[in-house]
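Re-run with default settings, no changes from the original entry. Doing this only to confirm the output is reproducible before filing.
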Amino acid sequence: MAIRCKLSTLMGEKRYNIQTVHEKTGIARSAISKLYHDKTNRIDYETLSKLCELFDCEVGDLFEYYKSAGIKNDGND
């Protein structure tokens, strides 16, 4: 996947663990864990909103796009 979740970095900066994020946001521990370990395939808007509010950040601060070696750009875009 060409998108990485940076939740673990944000949590580390604030010294939050998964339980703390769960208590402060109400997001399921399993959902936080999947995001923390970058093992999720999708995220809903409500979860994004809660995380942005908790970390006082933008959606782009939670995720990082990187170019995948498997996708070729033929210049016709």
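The radius of gyration is 14 Å. The chain has a mean pLDDT of 91.
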